[in-house]
């Protein structure tokens, strides 16, 4: 059964596959696919990943996914930029968990792309309840979408929390991994505050010497501290270029680059094209 209203800020579909195949390549800012029942195979980026009831996929913009099944039911939620912006605004107003601001991290994480989000079984049950509430509100033709936005906000926070736990386990299954995740969380939270990301400040914040902090971070993550900070900043730049009309000068100022020219040179070095070329390419899609 399919529910769709051309005036809705989001599109919610229920799709049943019986000896069938579904291919999607979403243009929405955020697309969630939840397996309500059944099992099958998902295919994306040359990967084949089995799925079953309870799996939740967070699909990046314009990424092609194919779902194959003999019998399954999928719930698909597509949220445009304006809807996510409203969720962020409301989250900031009530000072909720900052995981809602980690959308880039969520959509590009291997586990969310593979549908393997929930490390905590009870969080998986909670997520299912939230999705059922979203579907119920949609079927009831809710007009203000407040409950739907709040449910999606909580869902994204649950997803982010579980992904961080996954990454924590993959980096190291001991106390050191927790320390690294604290450092990474601190960096992401203060990514726009250049002074708070200096080696001196980080060393003081985590009670480590400057030399040891750099060595320790690289040993545990495989990348240097400065490379991680730059890579995360450039991912945020990509998001700004794709989904907003904010000028490059303002992006450079927001994320602590020296100036627009400095950001342009770094972006071209690592992305093999200028920011303006990147924006033109992706905003045409």
Automatic annotation (TrEMBL):
This is AraC family transcriptional regulator. InterPro entries: Homeodomain-like_sf, HTH_AraC, HTH_AraC-typ_CS, RmlC_Cupin_sf. Residues 181-281 form the HTH araC/xylS-type domain. The keyword Transcription applies. Gene3D superfamilies: Homeodomain-like. PROSITE patterns: HTH_ARAC_FAMILY_1, HTH_ARAC_FAMILY_2. Keywords: DNA-binding, Transcription, Transcription regulation. The lineage of its organism: Bacteria, Pseudomonadati, Bacteroidota, Flavobacteriia, Flavobacteriales. One of its GO terms (molecular function) is DNA-binding transcription factor activity. SMART domains: HTH_ARAC.
